[in-house]
Amino acid sequence: MHNPWFGRGEPEQGAAVRLFCLPYAGGSAAAYRGWPALAPGGLQVCPLELPGRGGRIGEPPLSRMRPLADALAGALAPHLDRPYAVFGHSMGGLLAFELARTLRRRELPPPAHLFVSGAAAPGTPRNRPPIHGAPDADVLDELRLLGGTPREMLDDEELMALMLPTLRADFSLLETYEYRPEPPLGVPLTVFGGTDDPLVPVRVLDGWRGQSAAGARLRVLPGGHFFVHPAAAEVMAVIAGTLGGYLSRGLPPQQVGEGGR
Prior knowledge:
By secondary structure, the protein is an alpha/beta fold. The chain has eight helices and six strands, in the order βαβαβαβαααββαα. It has a six-stranded parallel β-sheet with strand order 2-1-3-4-5-6, sandwiched between helices.
């Protein structure tokens, strides 16, 4: 039976390492459609499709973090039979973190590495008013500020009417999220940030260092909140280099300690 969580089909058995990718608010598995071509041999990019978008547009989206992380953990459990890593941008970064903690609570195999992009460290106070219950015009203004949605899409009233319930659910997920302290993850962590990100400035990324007992580093790339799109090749180069041990020799990936910017 087809697993709806996998936007590009079930993970392949021949892959040495799997990279599960989580989208930003309002995004879908299509956000990573160009990544397989950038990945080295042996690394399978597995974009994950959340309810309410892409091929799951007819499903109600989930608006709370814990139920979504629980559902994801259940969907991924059969596919954790080999080394894997998790990448998430913005909302996806926070979701990747909570997914890793959920997997730990379930005593399932942990990721070899966690890649978080464009996401403030858990527990960082929000600096913007909540908008998940705001008028449609305010939600669209927020999307314009973030800069990741093409103008032609924002101007398409029919398309936006279709997407607004999912956008509101995603904003609700972020705005109702309550960080609960737990011991640091035993998973090495790489955090990506954008030099000119108006939503997640570089100064709020250092808090991620305390979330990993296995070492963390910060990589800052040029661009705004959606720097991950123009810098996709550079991001993939960092991912491939970090996981290179598994890809080339079947050894554990390099353990990344405190790194500079």
